[in-house]
Automatic annotation (TrEMBL):
The chain crosses the membrane at residues 20-37, 43-62. It holds the Pfam family DUF5592. The keyword Transmembrane applies. It comes from the Bacteria. This is PrgI family protein. It comes from Lentibacillus amyloliquefaciens. Keywords: Membrane, Transmembrane, Transmembrane helix.
Length: 106
C-alpha cells in the first residue's frame, strides 16, 4: 500500500493568481485611490490618472526581481520598516579572505 504525500501542505487559497490577503489589499487600495483621491484630479487628466493608477496597482503585485518569493508591495513594506540604526558588515574582499583561509590551513 502506497500513500501519496502532498507536496504543499500549507497551500493558501488563490483567486485570479492572488492570495486572499493580496486581493483584499488590492481592492481596498484601488477603492481608496480611484474614488477618494479622484476629486483631487482635474477632469482633463482623469483617463491618464486611471491608467497610471491601474498600471501601478498591477506593478505592485508582480513578483519582485530583487527579493525572491516576495512581491513589489512587500518589498516596499520591508524598505519602510527597516531599522536605519542597524549596521550590517559586508565582506568586500570575499575571494581574498577565502584564499587566505585556504593558504593558512583554516
Amino acid at each position: 500500500m502506497t500513500y501519496e504525500i502532498p507536496k504543499e501542505i500549507k497551500a493558501k487559497p488563490k483567486i485570479l493568481g492572488l492570495e486572499m490577503r493580496e486581493l483584499v489589499i488590492l481592492l481596498i487600495s484601488s477603492l481608496l485611490v480611484l474614488t477618494i483621491l479622484r476629486d483631487l484630479v482635474h477632469s482633463v487628466f482623469m483617463i491618464p490618472y486611471f491608467v497610471a493608477v491601474i498600471g501601478f496597482m498591477i506593478y505592485l503585485f508582480i513578483p519582485s526581481g530583487h527579493n525572491p518569493k516576495k512581491r513589489h508591495y512587500e518589498s516596499l513594506i520591508l524598505f519602510f520598516r527597516h531599522k536605519k540604526a542597524v549596521y550590517h558588515a559586508m565582506d568586500k574582499h570575499k575571494q581574498e579572505n577565502r584564499q587566505l583561509r585556504v593558504t593558512e590551513g583554516g
